[in-house]
């Protein structure tokens, strides 16, 4: 096997081009999933947190919050919990890469005849698959507490696909963070400081109509709000009240979310590959 050559194309290996990058990425993704199998605590604690959120908000705060005409708070809540969970789940990408950097595993990958992008493709893909498991567990929990999908099968599948696509885009941001900061702990702390307010200054848990003016404006254009509104529409969890006058982002949440997904991938995929090349060469 030939050694990896340093060409100008971040996604090109010595042979096979993009196909080899995807094949090598699948191998790395399998490696990451095996790690989860061998350390099941990772999956257990990842799923326990959203389950606790569902139970706490549904039974503690649910009786005090009005979601709007024709919709119970639990149906309003579950799509928001979905979004918060997959966004936080995307931080596994950054923490995993930082951990591999710290332990020297990236250096071992660097010495192999594999595509430079394979580590990133594998890492982000495995974390999407992890999110699939988490969303499935959350869906079962939601059904138990009273959440229902009131749309067609196609729309429901579209809602789940949009969730996972948004999480995938966020994971590439976390990949850049994980390649810059020195440890998984720093990644988790940095991500928490950004993602926590991002998911709460949104329509994830409560309607934004009573927000202060500045926070309301931020929430209305926050991509977390748009993906939450989009999933509520696709799951049929919007109630009977017509949409109030508001920004374009919430009247066309699916399209607005797709714009964000495409934009984030266009910026952070090449940026993360470039940062990986710099980090691996240090």
Describe the SSE topology:
Elements: H1 17-38, H2 41-61, H3 73-89, H4 91-103, H5 105-110, H6 118-145, H7 153-180, H8 184-200, H9 213-221, H10 223-235, H11 248-251, H12 253-280
Helix pairs in contact: 1-6, 2-3, 2-6, 3-6, 3-7, 3-8, 3-10, 4-6, 4-7, 4-8, 6-7, 7-10, 7-12, 10-12
Helix-strand topology string: HHHHHHHHHHHH
Task: Give the number of domains.
Answer: 1
Q: What does the overall shape look like?
A: globular
* Low-confidence runs: 1-16
> Which structural class is indicated by helix and strand composition?
mainly alpha
Name the descriptors.
globular; 73% helix; mainly alpha; 282 residues
Produce a short descriptive summary:
The protein is mostly helical and 282 residues long.
Kindly describe this structure:
By secondary structure, the protein is an all-alpha fold. The protein has one domain. Helices cover 73% and strands 0% of the residues. α4 packs across α6. The longest helix is centred in the middle third of the chain and has 28 residues. The protein is globular and about 60 Å long. The two termini are 24 Å apart. The N terminus is likely disordered.
């Amino acid at each position: 096997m030939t050694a990896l050559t340093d060409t100008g194309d971040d996604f090109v290996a010595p042979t096979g081009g993009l196909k080899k990058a995807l094949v090598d990425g699948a191998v790395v993704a399998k490696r990451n999933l095996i790690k989860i199998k061998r350390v099941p605590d990772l999956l257990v604690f990842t799923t326990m947190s959203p389950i606790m959120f569902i139970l706490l908000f549904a039974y503690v705060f649910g009786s005090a919050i009005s979601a709007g005409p024709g919709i119970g708070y639990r149906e309003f809540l579950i799509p928001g919990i979905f979004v918060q969970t997959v966004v936080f789940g995307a931080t596994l990408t950054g923490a995993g890469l930082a951990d591999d950097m710290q332990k020297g595993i990236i250096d071992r990958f660097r010495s192999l005849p594999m595509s430079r992008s394979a580590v990133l493709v594998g890492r982000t893909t495995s974390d999407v698959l992890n999110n699939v498991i988490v969303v499935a567990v959350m869906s079962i929990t939601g059904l138990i507490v009273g959440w229902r999908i009131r749309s067609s099968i196609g729309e429901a599948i579209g809602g789940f696909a949009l969730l996972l696509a948004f999480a995938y885009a966020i994971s590439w941001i976390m990949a850049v963070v994980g390649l810059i900061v020195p440890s998984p702990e720093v990644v988790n702390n940095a991500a928490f400081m950004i993602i926590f307010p991002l998911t709460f200054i949104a329509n994830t848990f409560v309607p934004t109509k009573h927000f202060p003016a500045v926070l309301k404006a931020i929430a209305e254009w926050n991509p977390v709000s748009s993906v939450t509104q989009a999933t509520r529409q696709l799951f049929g969890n919007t109630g009977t009240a017509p949409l109030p006058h508001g920004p374009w982002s919430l009247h066309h949440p699916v399209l607005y979310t797709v714009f964000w997904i495409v934009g984030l991938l266009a910026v952070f995929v090449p940026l993360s590959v470039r940062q990986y090349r710099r980090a691996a060469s240090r």
